[in-house]
Amino acid sequence: MNASSKKAALDYHSQGRKGKIEVVPTKPYSSQKDLALAYSPGVAEPCLRISEHKEDVYKYTAKGNLVAVITNGTAVLGLGDIGPEASKPVMEGKGVLFKVFADIDVFDIEVDASDAEAFIATVKAIAPTFGGINLEDIKAPEAFEIERRLKAELDIPVMHDDQHGTAIISAAALLNALELAHKSIDQVRIVVSGAGAAAMSCLDLYEQLGMSVAQVDVFDSKGHVNSAREGLDASKQKYASDRRYDGLAAAMEGADVFLGLSKGGLVEPEMVKSMAENAIVFALANPDPEIGYKAAMAVREDIIMATGRSDHPNQVNNVLGFPFIFRGALDVRASAINDAMKLAAVRAIAELAKENVPDEVSEAYGNQSFVFGKELIIPKPLDPRLITYVAPAVAKAAMESGVAQKAITDWEGYKKELLDRIGYDTGFARTIADRAKKSPKRVVFAEADHYRVLKAAEQALEEGIAQPILLGRRSVIEGLIEEHSLELEGVEVINPRSDEEHDRRCQFGAEFFQLRMRHGLTAREGERLMRQRNYFGAMLVRSGQADALISGLTRTYPSVIRPALQVIGKADGVDKVAGMYILETKRGPMFFADTTVNLNPTAEEIVSIAVLTAKAVRNLRIVPRIALLSYSNFGSAEGVDAVKMAEAARILKERHPDLIVDGEIQANFALNEELLAESFPFSNLQNKRVNTLIFPNLAAGNISYKLLQELAGIEVQGPILLGMRQSFHVLQMGSSVREIQDMVRLAVVDAQIKSRG
User: Of these residues, 94, 183, 342, 380, which one is catalytic?
Assistant: First the structure.
């Protein structure tokens, strides 16, 4: 990582609330009665019930959805033995993945105990708190004994993800690779580089799939693991070969499969070339594989290759497994994660890779076309179907193998519950980022004399989504770049007031005069306005010298939107522009409009706002499901706003029958499907899961999103200016670097859409 990236990583972890996770109450706590129920005296009742029936701990506490991510920091991936404190950021990160992908809560626990017995005793002592134990980053061979003992002595699921996560994902990949290579797992010869916890667990799992020990040759740091070697631990003794090889190169000659879980650069292209026809190469060392993808593919066209990297096909990523394995185990209150459950996960992951890949997955990866084959032997980590494939498979296996303490009978209902846990439209922000990367655009940053803007520009450049154009005084911009060690070399810097921009100012001023001469603008005033960055930047976009503009960090909304409307103007057929915010909620992205432009729109204007919003949502590859909000439900109350929204709903249904829309309706009924079904079963929104809210006036929309942002901590993107001819977007005053970067991504995607007409 360069200096700027290192600083960004440190800032990410340190700014605002420190770290990456927090504990949030799940019950009301605002009144004295709430607190009396939460603690004393009310808490006594569940305590007494649990003391009488220990299993009720799953009914009255969070135990059933709580996993401990536990380490001693002795084998942190890529970093080694760095100790418990230094490993905490990794464990918090693991907690984030559990929550994001499977809605599992996590306490990360870093234990200062390198001795296996002390570590085991600690975990056993705290185990009553948790529904499952995820062991992480513990060095071999201690990791084997720790996991074995804890699995035997605890009655909750225990898994060492470094071992079994890699084993499960690589096994799924291997099954599909063997199918494509027309080979059988009980016939191939396998060479393994690495003899740590992950490698040994891989082989143990492959054995359960049909491989025999005699098919394998393992290499550790001391060379070939064979029967002549002394001092081998039990895991290596199992795979000690009767053959003798002087080195890895000799063993790989004629081999069908190479599995690398060691370190980068150990395998030369000639070694891959010497392997059998249709060879399978899993070079999984991180961050650098045993042989690079391009180097391996350059010498052989017939190989099927996987790595641990996201920038090449077939990433063996543990996130494909552990969140969903624990999800399934927790949901049936499994007493263990046994071999049957691991094998079920293997087969579920392997089968998913063969299914048709939905559009949202292709879009998440830059609209790449994915078809089962050499470049797709395992699913992509962002495939939202993983939870509905893997978790039910694991849960069924737990039930069938006798370790489940709770039965699931309605499997379709269970799959719906899983989707509800993570939200239907998850990964929205990632999808937008990936779409932006596909076709980067030239983005004008009108307030480039501010650090946050420059930092966002740097990130946009590094991410590959935009070519920044920086507006402002060169000396100030260059000073900030130097002060903060920003990587913005070669980026265009323009000072609209400078002498060197005189000719372009004159040209832009003349063009602007032609646009506005019948609106009270003089030629001289047109040229003068071009000294202002928002006007100059808007002309860059209008003239095709840029594709999008971002402004508003330090300026009021009206002062920024005015140049946009005057210079760029509204798209054809648009009477009024509108503003939309995107709220990243637990149920997926929610779209709010109008939140920034129209003070008190008429019924017809509400219709226009709804149509503009629906188009924007569709452009983001999401089906809009629209509720027109009011204080009334379908005529239950009188008043100007209620009548207006009812009329707008009527017009929308008449003119746009393809839209999923209804109103007027109160927000709670719009968002609560059960409440809506019970009270208004006739509504067009029945079972539609509303994601788009249209407000009766600016005050309602603006207040709503700001309350949710501040009180609920919901992440907000916007405002997105709807109905413009070209991409021009206004920031909230005081936006963070993250918020600016989100807006840049949206602006780039907007520019992509508008460039296609």
Answer: 94
